[in-house]
Amino acid sequence: MIIKYPVYKAFIVMLVLSCWTEYVHADDYQQQRDQLVEQIKSNVQISSDFLKKDQLDARVLDAISKVPRHEFVPEKQRRWAYKNRPLPIGYGQTISQPAVVAIMTDLLQLQQTDQVLEIGTGSGYQAAVLAELVDKVYSIEIVPELAERAAGDLKRTAYDNVILRSGDGYYGWKEEAPFDAIIVTAAASHIPPPLIKQLKPGGRMIIPVGGRFMVQHLILVTKDEAGKVITRQILPVKFVPLTGQH
Questions:
Q1: Buried b (16+ CB within 10 A) or exposed e, 195-204
Q2: Does residue 108 form part of some domain?
Q3: Residue 101 placed within a domain
Q4: Closest CA relative to residue 164, chosen from 201, 207, 204, 116
């Protein structure tokens, strides 16, 4: 005997199955993000001598647990999206290791009302993490194709508080300066003077400094209320070089 179901019932069954599949996938990604947060906590413990602390701001870890990193990597890299490692995104660039993203973000000590400048949008992932923490993020990407891709991914994932343009990040974004915080996601041979100038008194900047084939260090730059600039070496890192006409 053949049982025939009304079409509308079949449609409902298909809809329920589709929703369930999406739910399972979403839940699976959330589980992977939660596991990633635990790995980051372990990394911070290992690096505590460099960081002078053994745990990160809970708000930063919460942001990492929310941002869908798999949406910011090429399709062929998605299976590794929640591994604690950098991944290639094309054009000689990478999406940074999540632990490094978390550490750099934590060092900025962000407040919700802070105006933040990111140099090197890349995939858009770091900008999304920042956007979870502050009201407005400005981001510059020198590779036009990456800027266009990141803008699309940020829009698709509803990070509408990120303002993105293509350009040479060495010179900052003078029209929107000054900034409470600046984050540079590529290694410079020196700290760019335009970025120091665009940092507010009381502001903070985090930047990797060093050549491609040299030891690089993450440097925390602070500017006191009198305008005096103080630098502190945090830990050894490895980043792609900051490119441009400088």
A1: bbebbbeebb
A2: yes
A3: yes
A4: 116
Tell me the residue range of the domain where 142 lies. 7-237
Look up residue 190 and give its two tokens.
């020196």
CATH of the domain at 44: 3.40.50.150
CA distances from 79 to 29, 74, 109, 195 (A): 10, 10, 31, 36
**Phi, psi angle pair for 112, to nearest 5°:** -55, -35
User: Is residue 244 situated within a structural domain?
Assistant: no
Q: What is the pLDDT of residues 68-119, one digit of tens each?
A: 999 999 999 999 999 999 999 999 999 999 999 999 999 999 999 999 999 9
Tell me which of 96, 139, 166, 189 is the catalytic residue. Answer: 96
Q: Does the reported pTM lie above 0.90?
A: no
Q: Is 245 domain-assigned?
A: no
In the annotation, is 47 catalytic? no
